[in-house]
Amino acid sequence: MQRIVLTNARLLDGDKPPRDKATIVIKGDRVERVITGPWSDGNSTDEVYDLVGRTVMPGMVIGHYHATYTGYSAATVLPVGMEAPPAVQTIRAANHLKLALHAGFTGVVSAGAPYAIDAACKDAIDQGLIEGPRMVAGSRDVSTTGHSQDGFAWHWGPGTTSQTNIVDGADAFRRAVREEIKRGAEMIKIFATAGHGTFGPSPGLELSEEELGAAIDAAHQRGARVRAHIAHRGAILTAVRLGLDVVDHGDGLDQECIDRMLEKGTFLVPSMFYPFRVSQVASGPQIDAMKKDMYEMYKILPVANRAGLAMTLGDDHGAQPLDHGNYADELEFYVKEVGIPALDVIRWATKFGGELMNRGHELGTITEGKLADLLVVDGDPIKDIALLRSQDNLLAIMKGGKFVRLRLSQSQAQNANMRSFASA
Ligand SMILES: [Zn+2]
To answer: What are the structural domains of the chain?
Structure first.
């Protein structure tokens, strides 16, 4: 089998500090070898690229993704475009997923989509019908009557919408979760509190502990996981105690939350970029309240990061003012605005992203035996994290050992050397 060899690279493996003069050998869909220093086991059939010091890093993962989002309506606080027929929304999602892959994101974990569109897109990608990243399919939002995202005025229509599966009571939550899983959801989304992007106060849980516990148990029983929109300290502690897998946003986080999350292995997807961008373009009392939470998170996130809490990238792109495609802007935000070291933010985007996909054993780092999802970057993202924002700097994108993008030429000289070495 022909191998692809990336040699003379600066290697950012997704976890440890960079190593120079690295060689990554890819065979089939996997990383066969990672060597630092001289490489000498080439053969004449190898496809060799001398990277002259360019950086190889894992493909990134968006940990909070809405493939169908197109913007927010102030009237309903719901994403606009949800009124479109399912087929239109699916085509929109397919376009966004392709954008994600070409922005260097080889994996996405959904934070919710209507009409089981995620599961359909995941199937279509796996079948090669459309181009896109590896997906963890999301659900409709499973939440209670009148919760913060149940934004339609009561006289407008039924409680259950394409985006939201509105249920009350523990048994109803169990049934709703099983229904979402039946439709292909692997990650159930629950709105547990208001706050953060929902522009409402966040006084505590919007569902009962029994409802939340039943949802989590029902999901786990069928091998699915649960993520919840939470912007309240007490609600974080309750949800983590009940076994929640992913805290979205996590406004109100404190040291006790961090400790409990570390004990339970709970992920945090802070998605701070959305409130940051909203606060730049809007004003008023609701924005002020959001900013107050945001600045508290600026203080606690570096503490959580130093404590080793598993955090990932991902935000409400598609909801204005975050456009789809500009996903890597988030990395620069965490480095420059929040003060997280670039190496750590890259670990959020890669190693922790693979773990959030529940595939840490085969995704997220450049490690022998893992799937070859990787990027070749023109420059060093540790020195300038903003490099990742421009697709011009992504010289190669590889998913499962196949180039999705390739702007490198093969090294003829290297091939000749290897040929003579092989015949010697
Ligand atoms: Zn979201």
So the answer is: 3-59+363-412 (2.30.40.10), 60-327 (3.20.20.140)
